[in-house]
User: Fold these one by one.
Assistant:
Number 1:
Amino acid sequence: MYTAGIDVGSTYVKAIILNENGDLVGSAIHSTGFLIEETSKNMLEEARERAGINSADIGCITTAGFGRSMVSFRNTQVTDLIAQSWGVRALYPATHTIIDIGGQTMKAIRLDDGGRVMNFRLNDKCAAGSGTFLEKTAHYLGYGIEEIAPLVERSTKAVPISGICAVFAESEVINHISQGEKPEDIMHGAMLSLTERSVSLMKQVQMQPEFTLVGGIMRFPVMARVLRESLGGAANVPPENLAQFTGAIGAALLARRHLEKKTD
């Protein structure tokens, strides 16, 4: 019997299907929008089609994320903290500290030796501490989201951006543009600013290695590289696009656990 996990995030909905061995056999992702249940259903169907299975083959659906309770066809639901801890530990069993940078929020999670959540901190009050800040900075500079990584690769220095609020930080960006700073150096500075906030949040949970970096922002290799450098060079980053799916993977694993408890 297969299980499904749906991570209903503030920016994207991610769906995962695992087989009875815990192997990932189907996945799908789409921007959340305002039709949360419809988008979640569509992503589950897309993941199911990629897995090549029927709806009846899915024994349990577990949702996570801010919109988890808005999906009426779920069987169970869990918090995104629990889902992330399960998903990350499945990939990197020795993880003790997770940094999750999404489109609207940033989370630092500290785990004990058994993978249980011991401490966490959220930075969800300002876009300067999330991936949205990088997207807005790229927009001001006249670049698209997927151009961020190659743009930063050309940078020879990082223009400092110190604003702790998105509004002030954006004002700094505009000021740097007017002073003739290069777009790649401004973008590099924005990325370093986000990295500093990430490390600060991790310190608040008394971070301990191993570190694992997840969230949509990690699809930019240069962001992962800058964060690794700030942490002394050692940090896990899930391969390909799995950094965005760890919450959904954890939800699907917890769906498996729910099924097993029902049959005991």
Note: The mean pLDDT is 89.
Number 2:
Amino acid sequence: MLNTSRKFLAVGLAAVAMSLASNPSVAQQVVKIGVSAPLTGAGAANGKDIENGVRLAIEEANAQRIKLGGEEVRFELNSVNDQGDPRIGVQVAQKLVDEGVVAVVGYYNSGVALPASPIFAKAGIPLIDPAATNPAITRQGLKNVFRIIATDAQNSGNAGKYAVTVTKAQRIAVMDDRTAFGQGAADEFKKAVVAAGGHIVASEYTNDKAVEFNAQLTNIKAANADLLFFAGLDNQAALLTRRMRQLGMRTQFVGSGGIADSIFIGVAGSAAEGAMAWEYGRPVESLPKGKVFAEKFKKRFGADTLTYAPFAYDCAWVAINAMKQANSAKPEVFMPALRTTQYEGITGEIAFDSYGDLKHPTSTLYQVKGAKWVPVTTISAE
């Protein structure tokens, strides 16, 4: 009887061993990639766009059954809702650190990125930025911060120079939403206008929750401005444009980044026609991998991308490729590979300068024609 029991035990152990050998997932190393974005509130649609860009990259990476250090890894998405609030952004940044993420893709709001990024620096975790564009984010002396999108100095700088030298605007008005992004973009635009010999005839501001702009538009109309540059986000920009048309203003509307999307056209309605906006990078559909990415995204999520999903997707792959190059998911091991990245992404060539910004950023001017955003010109940042 004892011998029979031993035989059964031996057979059972052999079966377990075979099961482990034939099921690699048992031995998988879990590698967590964090995402911080607003998943509720006014920025939720763009926050979800960022999250889904990372999700698609992670799903594709897992399908490749990537090995690091000889062990198959499974990447996991760890998302937090920063609500576009700096205070909450800091809290959930620490939550990501405590939960063991090895890299973070964020942020949508510059005002959240600025106070939250030092949390990751202290923990030695790389932060790869797909959307927050205030130049100060990469000028804090932090060696863990990377950005794969043009900064406000580059994007809004292009906008200011173009308004004077190409559009030939004579009387330029500027308005911002007083966020770190909006105020920063407006300041860079103004500097570029002045440097190009242009004239600012009105400077107004609102807040990012406002829906009524009569006082500001009355002043801009009285100044006889022929162009208004608005530094803010899509929904508010659309409300502003609609009100301009209701007031009979013929002033050319030009927006900062984060405006040339379907949300703007849906909210502005017929008032959107002719509006212009400067966006980061080249038109995705014009890039070699852009059309395929857009089709994959829509098939997976049942919706078109907004602005930032391609950038977020590239952020995730830049991190994953650095891990593959270093053969490790330890941030202290793969961070050097991240700094020397040479990657052809959905959004174009990605390589970082000494600050962690793109070496060769570009901006594209779009205009609404026939209820669609149509590229006008693409300019490389100086």
Note: The CA atoms of residues 175 and 204 lie 5 Å apart.
Number 3:
Amino acid sequence: MSRSWTYEGDEPVRVNKWLAQSGVCSRREAEGLIAEGLVSIDGGLVEDVGRKILPGQTLTLDEAGTEALDTKLTVLIHKPVGIVSAQPEGDQVPAVRLLRRANLFVEAEVYPNSDHKLAPLGRLDMDSRGLLILSEDGVLAKAVIGPDSELDKEYFVQVEGDITEEKIKLLRHGLELDGRELRPAIVEEVMPGRLRFVLVEGRNRQIRRMCELVELEVVDLVRTRVGPIELADLPEGMWRPMTADERAGLLEASKPRGS
């Protein structure tokens, strides 16, 4: 089935930019759809990738185009320790290896295969576990890990060492990594030796390195939430598809505050 959208802006805008801003597809995907002759405006085929849509005009994506976008797969995995998020080295096991039918937690209409190019949207290091999102959706990737994303991520961290108020204060704000100050974070001790972190950035091994700076050693780290998406009852080593409502919620939550 084809889909249509009416542009309600005040000024002309490039079709690829508008589709990306609307969360329909990425700019590159929009250019591909135009090149394949799958996009029309007010009944006229769009042939120029630089074409602008005018206020009040209606853009239609034909059935083949909507089918191409609908098959963009995104999955949620409960990654165990010992599994790498992305490209493995040597005998490492990548997270995509977990995407077998035997590990599926709920029913799925689409199963991953060699045609799906799934990439992690926010990595978890090999020694950490918890919620990992794999996707081939360019719009979602920008929303989750793009430079303008305001998505927060929640972690529960077991540490060894003395936890003091001063250390908690530094973990919340005041530390630097790689010569750059870290953004403020929510950090609280939820039980003896167990910390809850909520971050809006994702530097390489950030929490482990933050803890090292205040003489705490991380012995267990689990990510429980990315924006509105929660790990919930997804068992370790299992996966499930992301729903359309969850995708929409992620896109909305990723928008800069005040927009």
Note: The domain at 3-70 is CATH 3.10.290.10 (Structural Genomics Hypothetical 15.5 Kd Protein In mrcA-pckA Intergenic Region; Chain A).
